[in-house]
Amino acid sequence: MTVALDNYQLTDALIARRRLKRRLIDTLEIDEDSFNDNYSLRSNVNDLYAEARNSGTNPGLGRSKAKELLAKMEKLDERIKALEQKTYNVKRIFASFETE
């Protein structure tokens, strides 16, 4: 039951991240490839804007909204990492029981 619940939470978090990513891309008015190439947990809005300008895209003016969305994205990424680690640990425990 715990594994199913964790997988459900992980799936929900991944769906929420995809929606948030779409909103962030729309707010910044950059293309998805540029976002994927330049986003990391340490990203900030100014870095994403600079990369968008360097790639020839003229980013939108929603910086404050983008900062808010980026902060939410970072929290979601951390939550997803924690859920993935928890799922991995549970699978490892079950695997050790199966071998005994």
Task: Please tell me about this protein's structure.
The model has no long low-confidence stretch (mean pLDDT 69). Helix 1 (2-28) packs antiparallel against helix 4. The protein has one domain. It is mainly alpha-helical. It has helices at 2-28, 32-38, 45-54, 63-99. The radius of gyration is 17 Å and the shape is elongated.
**Class inferred from helices and paired strands:** mainly alpha
Order of helices and strands: HHHH
Number of helices: 4
Helix % is over 70%
Cα-based radius of gyration, to the nearest Å: 17 Å
Give the rounded overall mean pLDDT.
69
Total count of domains: 1
**What would the principal axes of the Cα set say about the shape?**
elongated
Distance between the termini: 22 Å
Report the uncertain regions: none
Q: Which percent range describes the beta-strand content?
A: under 5%
Number of DSSP strand runs: 0
Label this structure with key terms.
single chain; 81% helix; 4 helices; 100 residues; mainly alpha; elongated
Question: What does the secondary structure layout of this molecule look like, with pairings?
Answer:
Layout: H1 2-28, H2 32-38, H3 45-54, H4 63-99
